[in-house]
Amino acid sequence: MALWRDHGLGATADGYLRIVDPTAWQDVLAEVAPRFAAATPLMSSALGDLVVWLDGRAHLLEFRRGTSRIIANRLSTLLVILGYESFLADPDYFDWSPFPEARERLGVPRSHECFGFSPLLALGGRRSAASLEVVDMREHVLLISSVAGPLP
User: Which residue, of 8, 47, 87, 130, has the greatest Cβ tally within 10 A?
Assistant: First the structure.
């Protein structure tokens, strides 16, 4: 909550990461990732991921892939990671490909939007910039969950 309270809504990394209002995601989070229902949403990505804080750790919830993982054990570490583009491209952290190419073609999604694969990856969609379109992020995350089930 302090991140949002102190900095408000905003974006970094050429629009890839956006600070979110935590209360705007609590209901969706409880539905699509029950294990993270008590987490505090911090950021969203332009590829429809959420970064949440739970039990002293930053978790990356990658709905497009149906995975979650810890990306930082301290808030100070998360802030360092956010400052380097190399972490954005690293598959062990954010793996933002194919964001740069999609951004060139479609522009930067607005704060409530993201790039979504069409068809969904869970339905056999291709993981390429050509398969991305701009979608409402909440609706997209709910759609992925309805097709693939909640995050484990």
Answer: 47
